[in-house]
Specification:
The structure holds 2 protein chains of 2 kinds. By secondary structure, chain A is α+β, with helices and mostly antiparallel strands. Chain A is about 30% helix and about 15% strand. A 5-stranded antiparallel β-sheet of chain A has the order 4-3-2-1-5. Chain B is mainly alpha-helical. A two-stranded parallel ribbon of chain B has the order 1-4. Chain B starts with a helix and ends in a 5-residue tail after the last helix. In chain B, about 55% of the residues are buried. Classes of the chains: A alpha+beta, B mainly alpha. At the A-B interface, helix 1, helix 4, helix 5, helix 6 and strand 2 of A face helix 1, helix 2, helix 7, helix 8 and helix 9 of B.
Chain lengths: ~220, ~200
């Protein structure tokens, strides 16, 4: 999806280093909604594509206006609504109760807490590199021109650009399909390196290298 | 938005909504308050850049570990007990006299949680995601890092499933330091690539 989230190379966002930027968050609700997102996901309470994919569906103006953790609140709520776990209006009703001074309901379930930590520690690596991968380190490839309507891991800024296979990372199913529950066979994933001049054209900085991990489906021989 | 201005503008409404969402689910018994507390505590107390720093310091004092860390990062990090969510496929990229690595996720804010914890706000900012793939030296200069022109900057955009950790060069003059003292020199930003130890 060519949304506002695909921001590599955009202008106008200003400086990176600003006061407060060193901290992961600035208010207690922020790590809590982050944790809530993980817990609702692990407990199967949300539907549709995952949190990242759902956030990409935000309209661009809302995406850019929202803070990082506001996006997480939005995607958690959307997934819960789509599953029918919560009903439209339910969150607003609770907001009124809390704003009216009511204490927030709590619930204790130590077993759920243990399940969450075990889940965070679970290792799920991708499959090892296939022996018959189409490309090998050193091969020249070009990223296909494409305009995917849904989730993709291929940013706009490398489409149509030629690069060089750095290494074969492993084999994995194409997220562009699996996000939507569509069947996909494991395919090679490659680290591909690109020269800055090929990506951006001439610039003021000395040449540098940009590297991305790209699925075989995104690539053509160059 | 990398720092505070979004937060200050929107804090009350955003906070109330997030709070209400948790409360709705807790009232129904679908999400437990202690599960939320446990996940928050896990990333505040158990998992953070101290993990990555241990791996870096070990690699500095133990050539065998360094080789394993670069060749089989998942297994090498597992030796120290580090792995899991957002670290299922780790890659460790080593700085040298001629190469400087820096990591970003332009599409999202992907970050190696098991070794670095949760990312700083600037890593998630639009400015960093937009700029470091297009003008890395200008961004690094904001962090006070000026690299020689003949150093190759390698920017790793971790928008897929790989998660990256930068292995910095061991600082000159640190020969007498032990592993724990070395680990204390390794900051989070060194392992993202926006600082040097």
């Amino acid at each position: 999806m060519d949304g506002a989230h695909d921001m590599g190379g955009m202008h106008g966002f200003g400086p990176v280093v600003e006061p407060g930027g060193e901290l992961p968050y600035h208010a207690r609700w922020e790590p809590r909604v982050f944790a809530l997102h993980l817990v609702t996901g692990f407990e199967g309470l949300g539907a549709g594509p995952g949190g990242r994919q759902t956030r990409e569906e935000m309209d661009p103006a809302s995406y850019l206006a929202a803070s990082y953790f506001e996006r997480w609140t939005w995607s958690a709520e959307q997934r819960l609504l789509r599953k029918g776990t919560i009903a439209p209006g339910e969150v607003e009703a609770m907001m009124e109760r809390l704003a009216g001074g009511e204490a927030a309901p709590e619930h204790a379930d130590p077993a759920m807490a243990e399940r969450m930590i075990a889940r965070l520690q679970r290792r799920v690596p991708m499959d090892p590199p296939p022996a018959d991968a189409r490309f090998a380190p050193g091969d020249r490839v070009r990223v296909s021109r494409m305009r995917p309507p849904g989730h993709t891991r291929c940013p706009r800024y490398v489409r149509g650009v030629a690069g060089t296979i750095e290494r074969v990372r492993g084999a994995d199913r194409l997220p562009d399909l699996t996000t939507y529950g569509l069947a996909a066979e494991p395919e090679p994933v490659y680290a591909v390196r690109f020269a800055s001049g090929d990506v951006w054209g001439p610039g003021e900085e000395p040449p540098f290298t940009v590297l991305l991990d790209l699925w075989d489906s995104y690539l053509e021989p160059a | 938005m990398s720092a505070g201005h979004h937060h200050e503008r929107a804090a009350s409404a955003a906070e109330l909504r997030a709070h209400a969402l948790e409360a709705v689910l807790a009232e129904r018994g679908l999400v437990s308050t202690d599960a939320i507390d446990a996940v928050v505590a896990y990333y505040e107390q158990d998992v953070g850049p101290q993990n990555g720093a241990r791996a870096v310091a070990r690699a500095w004092v133990d050539d065998g570990y360094r080789e394993r860390l670069l060749a089989h990062p998942n297994e090498a990090l597992d030796e120290l007990g580090f792995g899991g969510m957002e670290g299922h496929n780790m890659a460790v990229v080593a700085n040298s006299e001629t190469v400087h690595n820096v990591i970003v996720c332009t599409l999202c804010s992907c970050y190696p949680w098991p070794v670095l914890g949760l990312p700083p706000s600037w890593y998630k900012s639009e400015a960093y995601r937009a700029r470091v793939v297009a003008e890395p030296r200008a961004v690094l200069r904001e962090f006070g890092l000026a690299l020689a022109d003949d150093v190759e900057v390698r920017v790793w955009d971790s928008s897929a499933e790989m998660r990256y950790l930068v292995l910095p060069l061991r600082p000159a003059g640190s020969e007498g330091l032990g592993e724990e003292e070395l680990a204390a020199r390794v900051t989070r930003d060194c392992m993202i690539g926006t600082a040097l130890p």
